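Lab channel / #folding
Pinned by the channel admin:
"Please post every new chain as: sequence first, then the structure tokens as a reply. Keep commentary short and put observations after the output so the thread stays searchable."

First post following the new format, from NK:
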Amino acid sequence: MRLFSFPFLIAILASAVIGAAADSRAQGATAPDPAIPVPHGVIGDDTPSSAQTLAFGVREALTIREEIALRQPARTDEHLDGLFERLAAAEDATESRGVVRLINRQWLRSGSDTADLLMTRAREAGREHDHALAVELFDRIITMEPDWAEAWNRRAVAFHRLGDPLAAMADIHRAVTLEPRHFGAWAGLGHILRESGDEAAALASYEHALSIYPHIPRLEPIVERLRRDLYGMEL
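Reply from TO:
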């Protein structure tokens, strides 16, 4: 299995987003800045080209360097650190799910009652398939709590469901910059890359997600299939 360091994966994700944004600007489109909230709206006719450029940038960057060991960044949340230690030591999917529920519960807490209430409303909008409203609510949340990784991750999901992969990638970049261990964001990145046709880059992102949470539901069969398709055997 190929493993990449957190800083390296974040760096190539940022460079790929910037490259795709430059491609969109060349075509007259307004591209999101990965460092700030993305404007409203779905990218129009240039979306396939932007997604292809994005996937190409990630694929090319992934070929530059491979590393054997993952370097965990320094964290200040001892409780969350402990949960990730438990997740890494979990012996089966059932035990992992229990730990992941605790991690997700902590990720959903911003420390602001107002932001938490808006998050609840945004999640309800997503369940009702009103993804445009969800994006608007996440905009407000991110303005209030710009360092809340889960808000960026959830808005990435909303943008993806609106058919805007470039905006989703920009938000994923921000989410994993704030929380490099966000296995859901890395898996989401894999889904976007796979949809764009870049199976090699998708596999690298999926493998990284699994290195953090080895029992992600339904992901292992996808990874095994991609390995067979790309390399003709399981690695």
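NK: The chain has a mean pLDDT of 77.
TO: also worth noting, The radius of gyration is 17 Å.
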